[in-house]
Design a protein that fits this description.
Helix content: over 70%
Structural class: mainly alpha
Radius of gyration: 15 Å
Number of helices: 5
Largest sheet: none
Distance between the termini: 18 Å
Strand content: under 5%
Length: 77
């Protein structure tokens, strides 16, 4: 979905890719409440709480930055 939005807005470059990917991540992050509540691994205790976990948040920031860089470099006119 982020790639479609990126393309439709005619954005280009890795910096724009990072910005769009981070915005998407920030918009969806509150959905971790549902994951914490309903995911079987979270409910069983196999996973730690995700919403307020700084390691999970940091991992998501890095992963979305990498995705944004790749997206920005691959989308061409």
């Amino acid at each position: 979905m982020v790639g479609v939005v990126f393309r439709r807005l005619s954005l280009r470059g890795w910096k724009a890719g990072i910005a769009v990917a981070q915005l998407e991540s920030a918009a969806l992050w509150p959905g971790m409440v549902a994951v914490d509540r309903f995911h079987p691994d979270r409910r069983s205790g196999a996973w730690p709480r995700l919403l307020l976990n700084p390691r999970v948040f940091g991992q998501e920031v890095v992963a979305h930055a990498i995705f944004g860089i790749v997206l920005g470099l691959l989308v061409r006119d």
